[in-house]
């Protein structure tokens, strides 16, 4: 370029062939000077091609592609399978919340025994009616029979993982609606139609526990693919729910002189907890920790080719698969069944019917504190201890589980239903009753946690979800048969 400082050089590989630098005076052409005029220089006005003459070529170091290198597949696989952290224990907390939500219907109704028996059903029409005097038995049968039937269907009739998870959201939503109906029934004066109120209550209990059965079964199936402590988190939430409902019941009774107002506040708290569980359901799939284990199981299922479009064929295949799983975990399945069978044979029907002889306290507070709160508190402690102490192991856990059957005669010999019992009262001490209740509930929480944790870990990872759902079904079956056996115990005490 004439009349400019013309710097021309070559940045090629052969520097010995560089062209000489030519300098041209710009004194006579000030208007084209390379020095900046009006804020711009001639370099900025030059074309892109001219500027590129001044830029040296950029040489990159050889990468994997240029030298035909491929990443080590073992390193890639190890990186993909590396377990992410459960940051802030979010997944653990979600499982605890679901554990609370699962048993919220059951705990809210059994803890409100006084509200139903001494307020809603205590009318001139129904004062001596069997549905008032034996309300907890009717409640237990309506709750647990429906629960076990739905749990069986949810366990053996599978329509894919997405369907199973959607059931959780639908179940929680319906439970919330039924609790809203329960609040309305608490507000309405039903003194002129106690039988109809009882019937509506039992229907709502059936609906609640059908949904709770689906909810519980599906949540245990979700937790089974995670490490053992996440299954225990659900059991932990179960007993934390009992503590929570017992404390709320005491507060509502103490804070409100009106049973109607106390019941309204009491059931509204349940709705709030269930709405929190509903939100937690949508948070869980977003966590990296849960997605990591979910993807591992999905990969294993894809390789095993276990799915089938035909539902009837899938049902047969599912039953065979569950039989295969049961053969591997039958000891744990029977243990969790027997733990809850013994526990529900005693609590709440028998244990809440024991009348104090030494402790001076209002009966409502005595039952709430030393039956419901005591049971749930020590069961919760048992759950916590199982996080740190796991004894005995899966092979011998059945021994202490069987020994728990001794709690049944212990409570039979306490001061249960003194007005109608025909058997003599051998254990008349209130303190012996409280200590016995604490031991029974502690062992219930401890061994239920151990067996629920052991079961899914005895099978292959791709079968862990089925093992978890099968264990949950055995849990519900134990509760159902235990509740019915409690009725037989009552007849034996009062009619022998």
UniProtKB/TrEMBL annotation:
<feature type="transmembrane region" description="Helical">
    <location>
        <begin position="90"/>
        <end position="115"/>
    </location>
</feature>
<feature type="transmembrane region" description="Helical">
    <location>
        <begin position="194"/>
        <end position="215"/>
    </location>
</feature>
<keyword id="KW-1133">Transmembrane helix</keyword>
<feature type="transmembrane region" description="Helical">
    <location>
        <begin position="329"/>
        <end position="350"/>
    </location>
</feature>
<protein>
    <recommendedName>
        <fullName>Equilibrative nucleoside transporter 1</fullName>
    </recommendedName>
</protein>
<dbReference type="InterPro" id="IPR036259">
    <property type="entry name" value="MFS_trans_sf"/>
</dbReference>
<comment type="similarity">
    <text>Belongs to the SLC29A/ENT transporter (TC 2.A.57) family.</text>
</comment>
<keyword id="KW-0812">Transmembrane</keyword>
<dbReference type="GO" id="GO:0005886">
    <property type="term" value="C:plasma membrane"/>
</dbReference>
<feature type="transmembrane region" description="Helical">
    <location>
        <begin position="467"/>
        <end position="489"/>
    </location>
</feature>
<feature type="transmembrane region" description="Helical">
    <location>
        <begin position="431"/>
        <end position="455"/>
    </location>
</feature>
<dbReference type="InterPro" id="IPR002259">
    <property type="entry name" value="Eqnu_transpt"/>
</dbReference>
<feature type="compositionally biased region" description="Polar residues">
    <location>
        <begin position="1"/>
        <end position="13"/>
    </location>
</feature>
<keyword id="KW-0472">Membrane</keyword>
<dbReference type="Pfam" id="PF01733">
    <property type="entry name" value="Nucleoside_tran"/>
</dbReference>
<dbReference type="GO" id="GO:0005337">
    <property type="term" value="F:nucleoside transmembrane transporter activity"/>
</dbReference>
<feature type="transmembrane region" description="Helical">
    <location>
        <begin position="263"/>
        <end position="284"/>
    </location>
</feature>
<feature type="transmembrane region" description="Helical">
    <location>
        <begin position="236"/>
        <end position="257"/>
    </location>
</feature>
<feature type="transmembrane region" description="Helical">
    <location>
        <begin position="135"/>
        <end position="156"/>
    </location>
</feature>
<keyword id="KW-0813">Transport</keyword>
<feature type="transmembrane region" description="Helical">
    <location>
        <begin position="397"/>
        <end position="419"/>
    </location>
</feature>
<feature type="region of interest" description="Disordered">
    <location>
        <begin position="1"/>
        <end position="49"/>
    </location>
</feature>
<feature type="transmembrane region" description="Helical">
    <location>
        <begin position="168"/>
        <end position="188"/>
    </location>
</feature>
